[in-house]
Amino acid sequence: MEYLYAILPWVLIFGIFWFFLIRPQQKQKKEHQNMLDNLSIGDKIVTIGGIKGKIIKIKDSNVRVRVSSNVDIDFVKNAVSRVEEKSSSKNDEDTEETKKDKE
């Protein structure tokens, strides 16, 4: 019985850590992965470095982002922090380069 009273506080501490720290972090990671899987051409994004731009090409684990006219940067998908604005459709506002890449 004494062992039960000695272990019970540790079990409670672990339970509190699980519900307040571990579970929310796992949920956030799952939502971020879902966001990365649903990226599409034309989405306006922000990277973890704070660079804003529009996705013009998606290839495997890389994303090409247009940050200014004639300035494109390639990023790893995991570098995308958030999507600021989803494109209305995949073909909306395709650039000439994107059309060439599709052919």
Principal-axes geometry comes out as: rod-shaped
Q: SSE order, as H and E? A: HEEEEEH
Q: Helical segment tally?
A: 2
Percent helix, as a range, is 40-55%
Distance between the termini: 74 Å
Count of domains: 1
Biggest sheet character: 5 strands, antiparallel
The second-level CATH architecture is Roll
Going by helix content, strand content and strand pairing, the class is alpha+beta
What is the CATH fold-level name?
SH3 type barrels
CATH class: Mainly Beta
How many beta strands in the DSSP annotation? 5
Order of strands, main sheet, comes to: 4-3-2-1-5
Give the mean pLDDT.
86
Beta-strand proportion: 25-35%
| Low-pLDDT sequence parts | 95-100
Radius of gyration: 21 Å
How would you describe what is shown here?
InterPro entries: Preprotein_translocase_YajC. Residues 82-103 are annotated as: Disordered. One of its GO terms (cellular component) is plasma membrane. This protein is α+β, with helices and mostly antiparallel strands and 103 residues long. The chain has one domain (1-85): SH3 type barrels, CATH 2.30.30. The protein has two helices and five strands. The protein has a five-stranded antiparallel β-sheet with strand order 4-3-2-1-5. A hairpin with a 2-residue loop joins β2 (52-59) and β3 (62-68). It is rod-shaped, with a radius of gyration of 21 Å. The termini are far apart.
